[in-house]
Amino acid sequence: MKRQKYLLNKVAWSFFTILFVLVLNFLLFRVLPGDPARAGVRDPRMKQEAIEAIRIRFGLDKQVINCFESLNPIKVGSCTVNPFDTQFFIYVRNLLQGDMGISFHSNRPVAEILVERLGNTVLLIGAGQILAIMLGVAFGIIAAWKARTAIDYAALLSSLLAWSLPTFWLGIILLFWGSGHGLPIGGKATPGTSSLPFLQQWGDIARHMLLPTITYTIVYMGEYMLIMRSSLLDVLAEDYILTAKAKGLSTFQILKDHALKNAMLPLVTVIAINLGFTVAGALQIEAVFSWPGLGGAIYEAVVRRDFPVLQGAFLLIAVSVIIANLIADLTYSYLDPRVQSE
Amino acid sequence: MAVQTTELKPSVPSSPLLDFWRVFSRNRMALVGLVMLVAIFVGAVFASQLAPYDVTTSENITINDIYNPPSSTHWLGTDDAGKDVLSNFFFGARVSLIVGFFAAFISVVIGGVLGIVAGFYGGRVENLLMRFTDIMLVIPDLPLMVVIVALTKPSLLNIIFVIGLLGWTTTSRIVRSQTLAVKSRKFVLRARAIGAGNSHIIRHHILPLVMPLLVVNAILVISLAILDESTLSFLGLGDPTALSWGQMLNFAFGRGAMSAGAWWALVVPGFGIVWVVLSLTLLGHGLEQVLNPRLETHHLTPGRPVIRSEIPWRQETKKGEAPILLDVRDLSINYITEGKPPARAVEKVSFQLHEGELMGLVGESGCGKTTLMLALLRLLPAAGQIVGGGAYFTDKELTAMSEAEIADVRWKGISIIFQGAMNALNPVRTVSDQIAEAIIKHSPPIPRSQLDARVVELLDLVGIAAQHKDHYPHQYSGGMRQRAMIAMALACNPQVVIADEPTTALDVMIQAQILELLDNLRRKLGLSIIFVTHDLGVVAEMCDSVLVMYGGVTAEYGDVDTIYNAACHPYTQELLKAFPDLSNPEKRLASIPGYPPRLEALPAGCRFAPRCPAAFARCASEQPALHSLGEDHFASCHLVEASP
Amino acid sequence: MTQAYFLEVYNLRKLFRAGRPGIFSRKARYVHAVDGIDLNLKRGEVLALVGESGCGKSTLALTLMGLEKPTDGKIIFDGEEITHADDRTCKRLRQRIQMIFQDPYESLNPTQTIEEIVAEPLVVHGLERSAKTRQARVVKALEDAGLKPADTYLRRFPHELSGGQRQRVVIAGALVLEPNLLLADEPVSMLDVSIRAEILNLLADLRKTRQISIIFITHDLGTVGYFADRIAVMYLGRIVEVGPTKEILKNPQHPYTKALLSVIPVPNPRLRRERVILQGETPNPIDLPSGCRFHPRCPKVSEECKVSDPAWREPAPGHRVACLKV
Fold first, then answer.
1. What is the pTM assigned to this prediction?
2. Which architecture characterizes domain B40-54+78-295 according to CATH?
3. What is the DSSP string of C170-217?
């Protein structure tokens, strides 16, 4: 019973956070200086009617929110605008219908562009994260087990170094080195490969994914290794490890049955908190390697001042991270029996 | 009633600051980080003097100057605008450092204030602030920064504010949890009891203990801010008039450095970023180690080898006595710390445990009793080392065994009930799992149902109902957990059970229950028990024989009646006097002046001499041997030497 | 005309809310930490408050100190009712009522010097503005607490001292304001046996020389024998027996007191005696048993115990028991 309440709480809270992000997103793009329609449209050939059409489409001619003036305590009772006719409501309505607007740059629906790219980002982040977690956990365990030996110090220093590298710079260096060794210099696939059979097509994609994934893995592996090491060191100093040793269990058994599960818990929390940061990493990597993902979409939108795409991409990323966080929270509650009975 | 001050460290005039520097400089990571940081700081401050070229003008720059490789005129080559990379490097350091420090300053101040307010005042305020922090934590940082800067002016001031206003989340969380932790400590309660108000408590108690963490976190935040600025600049959102390292990379990357093969334009600025961030990371990590020293050894750290010595032969069982199960002979154990003389935790202790016997091992904190017990099963911490003597369990010599052999003896031959059962059981596994694990390890495979039945049987033996078997330790009360530990200790039908202070920290009534349980179990199962405690009264109730330890050596050893009614060692006598006697409640309680010796600085002669009412000249210079007083009664005191 | 009693407590109750009230919660549940305590104390008298964990003794101390606000009842100190004292009165009272805590390792702020710790009460109350006079008072307090020569301790930090020395520092900190009433919450339970006596003797001496009244809270009946004038036994938020020390120790009436006394280990193997070991654990103070609170564990329980809450009986002058069987 208590667990259900806990889960419900978490879900409700995530929902509220998404709402907050919606409002934030909306406000950022409406309230920050400049008429987005005019500011974004650089194309001098665009006619006045077209600009007007955009404004109507986005409801830019309506009130921003309901009765902004009526917040002024002097002017009471003069509010005549229908709340449903406000910009915010139109924005939400459009969103619910899957309409995120039209790209200033390509004139395609934003939603369409982003959905294509979402998959690519998930592919890249997914591969990178899985590798980073596996390697980070493995090295973290070894470092903790062999604490204060040469192996530990080497692992510690290399993790600290990896953590200190700016993601985009590591990407640049690897790209530079890679381009001199025949690896592709960007993109997801060589043009013209989409018609090839499955294996060859994905082989090509894999070649394109190689450097970006390595970059991603190096950056995050360092952090996971540090956390795993720290967490495992704490666990291995606990009394119940001594009890396990006193029972005659071997080092391997103790690590497997007693230490790891306890040490993984903080890691799950950190991975969850990190999801926001890993998206930042994705953004940088996709920019450097021209990978057609959400991060790349943001980068290109910034360069081109394509605000609808920027807004849509940001929203999509934020919502994905919130949902991923929720999943991580729920997973944690299943792993730690102390959680539900508080 | 004066108290000796011999235990205080010699008074060396030192300020806390000097002490701190001493410890700090010993930490290599922190020192290297600091040096690296100072170096780049100097480079930034003296950029105008260090830069060989003036990068503000474009005079004398022709198209041939673009992307020149490193040469004698340009040590690090030229960039996309023909300017000297090395000079730009120094000026770029300025921008990156300025943005980093100021943005971090904003973040840390916001985070620190929010954290302390939330943690200290609690209630709705805390709830609101923490919810807000949680939201901001979840929203991905960089995309948000990108969006905001893209929509506003990309000026340096702007960037500083954006990074600063979004970077406080980790700080506030850390400060809040530290504030909460400090707030609940007893000295804060004491301050309130004195009458201190909130501001006094925050200033004198919360802040000093939050500051160290805040400093470490601030260093981390600075490094993140510098990374953020570099990233934003690289993405084209930097201030084009302020050539930070990130901006240099933006230009290089976007203006064909790769295709021109101008690796120097790409490597040098990045190297600068890595240098600064690495220095801060090393400094931060090192500082954290200094402020929160963690031993970094744990229970799985390999132990030290046993130093072999001449072990006396096993004592033969006398006629008519129960067989001797455990024969400890002159066992000595040291604790080794780097740069200090070894602490002689246990020195030449001997005792014999017969079948069915309950021996009490009595001594106060630091006397070595737990060390002695751990050594028997070779469970000493990494710093511990057996340096002499031996121990026989039945006919096997424990100190000579390999790791595999001793693992066999553990739990099956000798088991331990640890004190403080709170953490002695793994909190994320069920109690029955942990009991079953021991059974599985030491017996041939048995079917699951039989295993479960045995677990239930064991729990029943200690008075825990079967329905609790699949619960977790935190769902048990303190008394129940101790019983569960006992059940687990009996799982493999050991011959000897060591109970290490099993009732300390339990209420008197629960204590009595546990003691009664142990006594019943001993009779029922024919166990031999070593009961480690500091409570003489408990020992008198239950034990057959008593070993009194002081400062790592045997003070007195004999059967319980002799010890209590005919003690010979002054320590035993004084200890008995210090015990309240309810049959004579008005008697003024005796105490032993002074404090137990520090194991790293043991007195030259008898370890009890500084506190002994009967000490004389010889006691201070010569350590007494263990003298036999007949009938298995031993005492280590010069005064008893004369007795036959 | 001086009052008979220095401290009077009538029907003191302190309840805590159990759990957080949810949207769909049923009737609120409370932790009955202190549930109807009557106490009185003369000047210079020592009252031992004995009970196991969860009986509410620490909460009682905190409530008497004003660190918790009473839910019900009256507290009268030196003739003045202080039950709902405002902040200013509370602060003034702190100079007269002081507390000593159980854990000498946690009661002292590790970043403060001994001088700062003992001087803190003076600073908080704005007494002794000059650093010199402050230090003089600190030195006196340290010496009264047995730490001589006091000036060697002034610049030390807590981690440099042993447990016994730290506890003396705590006592010095309590003495520096020259209080009239001392609440000592298990001051020796965390110290080695051979050191306990010196702290107890110190408190006994202070009582004699300064006429300080002391409420001595402990779970160990053994330590209070020579030191306390009267003993009160607490169970689940109530006092079940109270009376002169000698009387209670020689002639306990309440089954709980008898059990407690019987399980105290006697350091003499020839005197191994019959112990009354109560089964089970103290029930939680949220769902209280009906009738007499002790009935689920009482070896002498009968039907009427499950129904009626016993009133006070007085088998000897000054000796009161709350039990139907007396």
1. 0.84
2. Orthogonal Bundle (1.10)
3. HHHHHHTT--SEEEEESTTTTS-HHHHHHHHHHHHHHHHHH--EEEEE
